Every structure is written in C-alpha cells, then in structure tokens.
Amino acid sequence: MDQRTMLIVGQVFIVILAVILALAPNLYKFAILLYFVGIIAISMYKARSTGSSGVSREEVEKARTLFREEKAMELAAEDEEYLREVSKQVRAMFIPLLLFPVYIVIFQAVPALEPRVAEALQGLGIADARVARLLLWLAAFEGMFALNQVVRKLTGGASKPAPMVPPAYRVTEKGIVIKGGLGRVIPFPLPSGAEVRLDEKRNYVEIEMGKGVRMRFYTRKARRLYELLLRHGVKERGRGGTQENGRG
Predict the structure, then answer these.
(1) Would you tell me how many other CB atoms lie within 10 Å of the CB of residue 41?
(2) Which stretches of 28-128 are DSSP H helices?
(3) Domain span at 102
(4) Is residue 50 part of a domain?
(5) Which of 51, 73, 138, 176 pairs with 10 at a CA distance of 20 to 30 A?
(6) What is the number of helices (H) and of strands (E) in the chain?
(7) pLDDT for 187-222, tens place per residue?
C-alpha cells in the first residue's frame, strides 16, 4: 500500500468511527479497540500483490526447475545493510504502541468536552447533540492520525520499506516458487513495470514489483539468477535490469 492509499484508507476509517460514536456512544469501548487495531494494521500493512500473468500456481510449481537456493536467509544475515533496513522498519512498526498513552488520554478527554461543544453549537442554532459528538470524534481521530504520521516521518517510519526476503526459493520455467512463511509464487512474465536489479557484492537479485513491493533473492550465484530472470521473466525486450557493484 503506497502512502497516498494509506492516507485515504485512514481517512475513511476515521469518518466511519466518528459516525459510529456519534450515533451510538454506547459503543465507546468497541471503537477504542477498533481504532487501535486499525491504526496498527494500516501502519504494518504491506502490499503483497505481484500482478497476474495468467499462469496458475500449479503451472509454476510443476514446471522444470532452473535454479534453486536453500540458504538465502543465511546470506541475508551476512548483509549488514539489510539488517539495518529491517531494524529500522521494526522500530517504525512499534511506534503506534508507544503512542498508546497519548491516545488513551485523548479518548478519555472527548466525553468530558462534549457538553461544552454541544453548548457552543446550540449558540449557533445546532441543537442536535449527535453533531457535537461527531465533530469531537472527528477532531480526536484526525489529531491521533496526524500525530502517528508525523512521528513515523520523524523517526524514519515513512521511508522505503525493507525488501521481503524468502528463506528459500526455486526458479522454474514458469516463475519463482517461494518457500517458508511468504509461501507464494511469482509467475512469469513479471508484472509490467517490474525492475530486476543485480548486486553481486551483496549476493542478491532484487525484483521491484511497484507499489513499494520489493522481493530480494539472496544467492552466491547472483549473476546466474539475474540472467535467468531476464531471460524467462522479462517479457518485453526493452525491459532489462540494472547492476550495482557488479564484479563481471
């Protein structure tokens, strides 16, 4: 999920919660829980869609194997720059937890402020108490959302996410079969706009799928993997790859 989409989803979520609390204030505790769960989910969410080429998972898995790597995670553990990226992302993911005390204070303050806001609105000719609740909760949720975004930006949480690294994988004539927790396939050809990058010095080939999604494949035979991906995974002749710190 890119930054713009995340902001839109967050705004929709805020409006829904504010309306719920304006119409049904008895759902106060439920709304608090829903907000906390929602903001963590938005902060941690990663796009996992890699596009579709019309090739089924079964076709990819049963096709002839061209390349196999079983020790990718061991190589990733040797990449100090990657470890720094992951460490930075983990810290950013825990930021919502650190802000919980502030959120709780805001949640407790809103009901106490409701009579004052309702009185002020009555002076403007608006007598419906639900309007006061709606405006208060909108302001509270917007404030919490803005605080979360500012803190994430200041601490680097809004920077480019660390790439996903499969612990093991194999490349077939029809795509890439990923083993372990990511358990998925990436069919060939790669999605339009995907970029393939080689870094022999750090022993990996990286595929950027778009929308901030990066898949990094560690291997001692990075150049061989890179050439296989260009040959079988890149459909358009004009699309190639880039090389960083190459040795050959």
Answers:
(1) 12
(2) 28-44, 57-62, 72-77, 80-93, 95-98, 100-123
(3) 3-45+92-154
(4) no
(5) 51
(6) 9, 8
(7) 999 988 889 999 999 999 999 987 668 899 999 999
